[in-house]
Amino acid sequence: MTQDLTISEVRLTPVLVADPPLLNTQGVHQPYTPRLIVEVVTADGITGVGETYGDTKYLDLAAPLADALPGCRVSDVNGLHRLADLVCGDSPEATGADAVDVGGLRGVQTADKLRLSVVSGFEVACLDALGKALGLPVHALLGGKVRDAVDYSAYLFYRWAEHPGGAGESDDWGAAVDPAGIVAQARRFSREYGFASFKLKGGVFEPDEEIAAVRALAEAFPGQPLRLDPNGAWSVETSLRVAEELGDVLEYMEDPASGTERMVQVAAGTEVPLATNMCVTTFAEIPEAFARGAVQVVLCDHHYWGGLRNTRELAAICRTFGVGLSMHSNTHLGISLAAMTHVAAVVPNLDYACDSHYPWQTEDVITERLDFKDGCLAVSDLPGLGVELDRRRLAFLHRRWLDDDGTMRDRDDAAAMRVAEPGRTSPPVPRW
Ligand SMILES: O=C([O-])C(=O)C[C@H](O)[C@@H](O)C(=O)[O-]
Ligand SMILES: [Mg+2]
After folding, report:
1. Model-level pTM?
2. Whether 350 and 399 share a structural domain
3. How many domains does the chain have?
4. Given 201, 302, 332, 342, which residue is catalytic?
5. 228 Cα: distance to centroid of ligand 1 (angstroms)
6. How many Å apart are CA 109 and CA 365, to the nearest integer?
7. For the complex shown, is ipTM > 0.95?
8. pLDDT band at 102 (very low <50, low <70, confident <90, very high)
């Protein structure tokens, strides 16, 4: 039976999702964080879902793309990219090549990067619809899985017990602001999810405190892979000192210093592999970074790289140049986790357990939350992504977005920190 794969409708639903008070070098997560849910509907009535960032600057680019897409086919993903180049233009907030985004966690932000992040949500929705139409899982559309389960790592955060003034939703994780707190958090991740490798989000406290936390993890989990990621908060000298102190226990050090130039200098002085989701987040940034040996591991992220197919292409480039591949994560819901798992399943050289914030997100827009077993997610063989939208939950989280006065609609960890510490300014780079 031939299918009509023409897109007849595109729906964009911004939502606000509960986020715990996780600390990073910029500040603290807001009580709620914005995400955008993308639905594409084919002429045959098949709906595909995707998810991406939901801040205003992303919504500004998503709206014209949603308007232009009806009439295209869900199978024409190359056409989707061409269309985005044509209609998205630059968000008023898209900044020049020297700017760092407001979160300060993503490296240099350009209009190109914003557009690719928007396209990623649409691409995933198209592939979900195409898979459903053909009765094939998304991994089959990407060439077929090379593994049945994808390994994830525990994403440890320094955190407070609750948001300032008790805002937002509460949870029972408690505070983690010292080595004992981080080890307790890691033990719970290991017990409840079976994660066997651990990444600590650093850049929060003085480097010596974070060194002590990683040492405590190494003692609690001997021989298990550990990572530390201060999001570029350290100088070259500090980075080299941390590498010297923790070289025997770190699997890799993630973005110790900010920018390719500093990463080159750090890499020249240590044997500890350097990973990044900050200085290499587009194809244009690869040649210099690889030629100069700035990074030994790239953290792919289909939102950053413009979708699942681009992520696969990134993997091929990394393989060619002998650079390792891991996976980055930002606050996300189950749709993105399903997409991450499909692409991770088809990339032969995914050498490390993937990051995921998912355990920190207790709210979702899918009917059945994805379940980590022994630190892994099983790769779904159901048609499309293998997840189903929960319309009631979607409406609830959208209502929260509608009701918000604008404070939460754009993620700003520094602003959230100022609620706790009025007058606090953004830290200098490098901070230590
Ligand atoms: O460098 C990273 O892995 C990230 O930026 C991931 C997240 O954005 C994390 O830092 C956060 O949400 O605080
Ligand atoms: Mg990182």
Report:
1. 0.97
2. no
3. 2
4. 201
5. 12
6. 28
7. yes
8. very low
